[in-house]
Predict the 3D structure of the following.
Amino acid sequence: MSEPQVVVITGANRGIGLELARHYAGQGCEVIGVCRQSSDELSEVAKQVIDGVDVTTDAGIDALKTGLAGKSISLLINNAGLLQDEQLGSIDFDSIRTQMEINAYAPLRVTEALVPQIREGGKIANITSRMGSIADNDSGGRYGYRASKAALNAFGKSLAVDLKPRGIAVAQLHPGYVKTRMVNFGGLITPEESAKGLAERIANLNLENSGSFWHSNGEELPW
């Protein structure tokens, strides 16, 4: 029998990350959940949980590498994120910096650290947002979130170019407006519906469409 695919998911303790963990565990994958604080729900589905990890710090990245030592990774999902709101006239720049650290720099940190362990034919999915689309912005505001997700999209595009020779494909994926704690459960679709769509996009990801920016429903989004 072949070894199960190893799927690493950051921010896996709740919401979309947890539903992705459930999905891939149901597919027979070896799911490794990464988070700052675990949950009973994650422990039920993940083969391994690496908690206490702050992916914005060197110490957190070192702990992640230690926890994954010897693993050959099939799929890395950079899912951990933070949404805050800033309005012109009362912008909190510390809030913007924090969102940049979590939403943009952390996925790049994690990816750079784990690339040596991602096998040829492996995939990286960056959970971004259509709010990171400059062309799609017709409502303004959310300065930190928009900028951090736009930065993540730029990072992901460069990763796709740099990793193509290694046989690793990269996608930027918008999960939809999902009923999670991040938006006070006011979304349009459930985490289960979002995870299903995201998994379909990941399944269809290959070296030919690597670097693309997709909605979980299959729509290609503008930069």
